[in-house]
Amino acid sequence: MGCDGGTIPKRHELVDKNAELVARWYYCALSQEKLRRPIVACELGRLYNKDAIIEFLLDKSADKTPMEAASHIKSIKNVTELNLADNPAWSGDKESIKGDKYDDIQSARFICPVVGLEMNGRHRFCFLRNCGCVFSERALKEIKSEVCHK
């Protein structure tokens, strides 16, 4: 039995970590609004609404507080527009939103087009810079190619 000398995380720490992972896949890292197409990603793997990045880059006011989530983005060339595959099991935007509707974030909005894994924070995903296609790390290991299969 191995022991790394660490402490066992408390239940609320695990819940917080899961919520943080889920939030990265559902909300813009800059505006904190729900992700909506067109979605872009930076070299750090953070996801943004493209309009939020454009507004951030255009705002040259002196009193602008530097946004840590995008401080490394100096031009639109620092982000890649993503080609995401829709998850057929996701119904979030298709249903009318009412006050009594439960917002199910258990099923992800996007999936890997090769192996069908959901983009929900539980699996690692990668994007190809030349085309913006997004695949699970598992799929990229299987196809062993930097060339987009699409």
From TrEMBL:
PANTHER family: PROTEIN C20ORF43 HOMOLOG (PTHR12775), REPLICATION TERMINATION FACTOR 2 (PTHR12775:SF0). One of its GO terms (cellular component) is nucleus. InterPro entries: Rtf2, Rtf2_RING-finger. This is Replication termination factor 2. It comes from Phaetusa simplex. GO terms for biological process: DNA replication termination. Belongs to the rtf2 family. It holds the Pfam family Rtf2. CDD domains: RING-like_Rtf2 (cd16653). It comes from the Eukaryota.
